[in-house]
Structure formats: structure tokens, C-alpha cells
Amino acid sequence: MPETLTHIGPRRPRRYAPRTRLGCLTCRRRKKKCPADGPECRTCVRLSLDCEWDNRRHFPTSGPSPASTAAEEDGQPSSELDHDLPLRVSALSAAIPPSPSVLITMADAGDQNMLLSYYIHSFVPNISVVHTSSNFFTSVYVPMAFRCEPVLQAILACSAAHLAKGAPNSEDQARLLELSLRSQVRCHRFLQERISLTGRLQSDHIEAIAIILLLVGLEVQNGANTGKWVCQLDCVRNVIKQSGGNGVFCRRSWEAEALYEHFLYHDVMSLIMSGVAGSETDELEATSPSDIAASSPLPFTEAEVPWARFLPQDRTRSSSASSSSMRRPALSTSIHPLLGLSKDLFFLIQKIPRVKPVQSEGEGCPNPAENELFLNLERQFVDLRFDLAGDACGGIDLAARLDLVVLAETYRLAALILLYRRSCVHEDQIPLLAQRIISFAERISEGNAAEAGLTYPLFLAGAELVDEQSIVVCATKLMKIRERIKVMNIQSAEEVLQEVWRDRLNGGPCRDWENVLRSWKWVINLG
């Protein structure tokens, strides 16, 4: 054998890449080249990773002061923009222990794998009204998480917070909540680093919107009753506006369309709370993206939009824009994991704020027929048919399809309640609609996936019930849903309804649920 290789010549010595210990621990652990150019290397800053250094590594004192460094390590932004951002981390940093030695790092692959598996196999099925392989929570957000670390952190934050509610002991619960808090801080850092000194979102629009929507969902599952989630939605709303509107935004990529439908769901929930928050929401065009003409309106100017500081500075393609060239997955055109069969209905609900409320006879209450928009919406709500075509329901059994139809009917009746609350002429019809919602909700058996979507219609119906038997049915249904899916915004809704029912059953003056929320200064998401 050696004689046959003599023509090759002498063997060249193998050369190895020089090894150095000058890089940060994060890059060395990832086996990547580290620029080693400061307290936080450019690679870790670009990927929003924690740049860890060996204790023997020291830097000149000409860098940031120890106070500012400690603030950043605690999750507190050093920029003055913190006073203007709705996505604050100051409240989160107060709950994080200051000593890094006692913190559980999310670099632990075991924790990440466990939480990601829980997100896919338990969390997403719990909050979805239908179980399909095309669920955007997994088909869109999980692939995005593999190319954008902060999206993964948002997923882990939701997963850890939800898993903590079923922890067997206080130690495991505290550990999971700590993991969730640390992931939230990293998400906020990512968002703040992409906001310029003028307050404009400059890059990574798709990823930033995905993170914000996941954080809105985290507020919901934690039972937050402040208006923080409304401010987060305002941020998303104005980014979409400055992208040319929902039609132009949805045509950017299939990911953008999925994100808009996720936003649509929470936008309707904020619409329900618009009277409590003190002002009507500045809604987007309430038209399905498929029905929007190719020509989009001119973008708003900064003076016209109250949330101008969140608008994109440039409209060049973001890092995720190339995803539009990817092959689009077979997303269902009819069934949505949050909207169910009611996607078109939610687009109609977005138009309700345009209807002028008439609450007294002096305002022309006897003639509501003059309000053409009111009559048009009423007719569309009643005439809307929910399509259950076989090709759109592949893999879904008949019982699940019927549950989706029943859920869609409760959404239709709840939409009529929202509309009729704006007209004193239709007040006597609201209790009848509420009773119908309860009867429909009883048809969805306990433990079915469609139950996860009943909070919104049950709340609007429960607040209008007058007989004790129906109140018991509504309260029992909400309690069982909360115990099963472990989403704590349901508990906030229950507390408001209990306040309304207490006065009503005791023969006292009937309190409207909006008045209760105003007196408590609550703004809850019914998603």
C-alpha cells in the first residue's frame, strides 16, 4: 500500500485554528469566534445573549459605570426611553435576586428543552380551541424561535409561567417563575435595543411583533388587570399602520398574516375594554386582508399617530422578510386556534366603535334606524354563516367541528350584545341574548378544546343574567375552565361578575360591569 501512494508526495502537516482564552464564555461555549471587544462582545449583543466572562477577565474603567452595569444586569434599561415605553422591565427587575450566583441561567439546555416541549405538547393545546398541526403557535412561532433567540425567550417565559401554576411544591413554582422573569427581561432588552433614540422601531419588525403578542398572552395567563397589555397592542397597531395598513402588512409574508390574525384576536378584546380604559381604541381598517385592494393608504405622519415613537424608521426589508420566499405551510383558511370559525366575525366586531352610542332619549334614541352603520352591522351579524367545509377541517372529528360551530354562535351573540349596548332601544333584547349564550355554552361538554374560547362570551352574558339558575351555570362553567386551562384572567372575570351578581341577587341597584371595572381601575383581557 505505501508504494502506491508515492506519487502524492510528502504528507503536509495538519494545521489547526489557533485557540485563545481571550473570548467570552458564551462564545467559547457556543464554539464561535469572539471579537472580545468590550464588556459585552458584538456577537452576544447582536444575538441578545448574556455575555459572560471569566472572573479573571478585567476591562478598563473607561467603560460604563458600575451602577449602570448593575442596572443592566438587573434588567433595568439605562436609556432614558424607559419613561416612554409601555414595555418596562423595572417591575420585573425588582423580582429578580441581585446575586448572579443564585440565579438559574436559561443557558441550561435541559430547562430550555423541557419548557419548549411543554409549550408544544401542553401549553398550546390548552389555550387553543381546536387541535390542528397548522396551529400558528407552533408552525410560526417555533421555527421563528430557532432563528431569533428573543422569540424563544418569549415562548419560554409563557411556558414557565403556565407550568408554575401546576407545580407540585413552592420550590419548583418559585424556580419556574424565576425562569419566566429572566426570559421576559431578555425579551424587553431585545425590544429596547431596536428602538432608536427618537423612539422608532428600526428593524426586526416581524420578530418584535411576535414577541409583543406573546407577552400580551403572558399578561392574560397571569391574570394582569392593568392596562399594560393595551399599551403593548397599541405598539403593534401603529407598527402595522406605518407598514401601510393590515392589507400591505399581511402580504409581506405568511408569517405576517398569521401575526395579524393573532393581533386581531387581542385587538377585539381591547375593544371590549375601550370604555373602561377611557377612550375608544384607534382601530385599523376593519376589513379582512383578503378583501383589501392592492392600493394602500398613505402612511400616517407622526403628528397624526399618538404612538409615533414606536413607528418603523425605514421600510426596508427586515431580517425576517426573506421568510416570504419560504414555502408556505398548509395553514387552514377557516379554522383558527383562537378565532375558531369566527375570523370574519371578528373583522366585523372591529367596526363596532364606529357606531355612535345612543344612551338616552334626548340623543335621538327613538330613531336608531337612522344609523345606517348600526343596521348594517346588525344584519351582517345575523346573516353570517360559519363554513365547515370538509377540506378546511381535515383531521378534525365531527364532535370537534360541532363544538366549533357552537362556539362561533356564542361569539355571534356576544357581538350582538356589544352592539346593542350602544343603543338604549335594544336594551330589552340583551338578557335574551345572554340566556341564549348560556344555553349554547352548556352544549360544549367539559374538557373539550372549544371551552378555552368561552371566557369572552360567558363574561358578557353573565353580566346580563337575571335568574339565579343561569348565574350558577355561568359561574360553574367559568370555574371549571379556569381550573383546567390555568389561565388566570378568568379569575379576574369571575371576581367582576361576582360583584355584579351580589348586588343583583340581593335586590340592590344593578351595577354595570364597566362601572365595576372603573371603580377598581381594572382593564382585563377576556381572551
TrEMBL record:
Q: Which PANTHER family match?
A: TRANSCRIPTIONAL ACTIVATOR PROTEIN UGA3
Record's protein name: Zn(2)-C6 fungal-type domain-containing protein
Which CDD domains does the annotation name?
GAL4
Query: From the Swiss-Prot or TrEMBL record, what is one GO molecular function term?
Result: DNA-binding transcription factor activity, RNA polymerase II-specific
Keywords from UniProt, A to Z, are: Nucleus
Q: Which SMART domains match?
A: GAL4
Organism annotation: Bionectria ochroleuca
Domain Zn(2)-C6 fungal-type, first and last residues per copy: 23-53
* Any single Gene Ontology cellular-component annotation: nucleus
Give me the ranges of the annotated region Disordered. Answer: 60-82
